[in-house]
Write a structure and sequence with these properties.
The protein is an alpha/beta fold. It folds into two domains: 168 residues, Rossmann fold; 108 residues, OB fold (Dihydrolipoamide Acetyltransferase, E2P) (Beta Barrel), CATH 2.40.50. The protein is built from seven helices and 14 strands. The longest helix is centred in the N-terminal third of the chain and has 12 residues. It is globular and about 60 Å long. The two termini are 22 Å apart.
Length: 301
């Protein structure tokens, strides 16, 4: 479950999960240095590890998270950013966390850290621990990689556990690679048909814009919103979805062009289930080529 907040917020919350020794503290320390300049930040740790936060920010140690803890932190520090490091031995409870947050706080990103050097051990001895940490993440970072360990991590097929997350490989020399190679899709296209969940749609959308040839003549099924007020083009009707697009919880509409004629009976903002064949085509909104849907079936949800 991903947190989605579409209203303005005062305090942004970043949640870091991962097995003990996965590099959560080090990454939080680096992130604060990169992100938090000029902003009031607090780190909340639910475990005490070998590493420490070196940035000059307050650190609160708490064995358990609670509404009172967060309210006390809010009154004491009035933070703009809160970084939570979870207990590496426990299963992340993201829905439970969201319920604990004060009304003007919002969870905007869940980051899962994985140590490439111990990944093989945990996959063999405690695979459920990997699954529990990976499933709720919106970003997964596999650190301490060598070329050999990176290939093993790619072979572990973590995308089958979590398809919507960004996954990055971080090497010992500081370089970073996308877990997914340019010639590899996030999706199994062998059947020529995709049923896109709510979380999978933005992943498909970005990939279809980057690689429009990849989904040519693939059939998709997805729930989208009719947009009758969108950009006028005599060739296309428009479907799409409102989505949070970054850690600032910026809400944007992701439009998809459809061959005109299948949405006439629907009203603006109707939610419809669409089965369509994907073609590539040019559209001003895409600033080049992107997906154009040939709708073969559509019904109101």
């Amino acid at each position: 479950m991903q947190a989605r907040f579409y209203t303005d917020m005062e305090t942004r919350v970043f949640y870091f999960t991962g097995i003990l020794g996965s590099g959560k503290t080090t990454f939080i320390d680096q992130t604060i240095g990169d992100l938090a300049e000029g902003q009031r930040s607090v780190v909340v740790c639910t475990e005490v590890g070998d590493e420490e936060i070196t940035q000059h920010v307050p650190v609160e140690y708490a064995p358990a998270l609670s509404r009172k803890l967060f309210e006390d932190i809010g009154k004491k520090y009035e933070p703009d950013l809160v970084f939570i490091e979870d207990d590496g031995t426990k299963r992340p409870d993201i829905p439970g966390l969201i319920k604990l947050l004060p009304r003007d706080w919002a969870l905007v990103q869940v980051v899962c850290m994985i140590n490439a050097r111990t990944l093989a051990h945990y996959l063999a001895q405690a695979p459920n621990q990997i699954v529990e940490k990976v499933m709720p993440a919106s970003m997964i970072i596999i650190n301490r990689c060598t070329d050999e360990l990176a290939e093993f991590a790619r072979g572990a097929k973590l995308r089958t556990i979590n398809r919507q997350a960004e996954i990055w490989l971080e090497f010992d020399d500081g370089s970073v690679e996308n877990y997914v190679r340019e010639d590899e899709s996030y999706f199994d296209l062998s059947e020529g048909e995709l049923f896109l969940s709510e979380d999978e749609f933005p992943v498909w959308y970005v990939e279809a814009l980057d690689y429009p040839d990849r989904f040519e003549k693939v059939t998709i099924n997805v729930d989208l919103m009719v947009d009758k007020e969108g950009p006028a083009d005599p060739r296309y009707d428009v479907l799409g979805r409102w989505l949070m697009t970054c850690c600032e919880a910026d809400l944007q509409f992701f439009p998809v062009a459809c061959r005109r004629g299948m949405l006439d009976e629907f009203k603006d903002e109707d939610i419809v289930n669409v089965t369509a064949i994907v073609h590539k085509g040019e559209w001003e909104i895409y600033e080049g080529e992107g997906p154009v849907l040939e709708i073969i079936d559509v019904k109101k949800v």
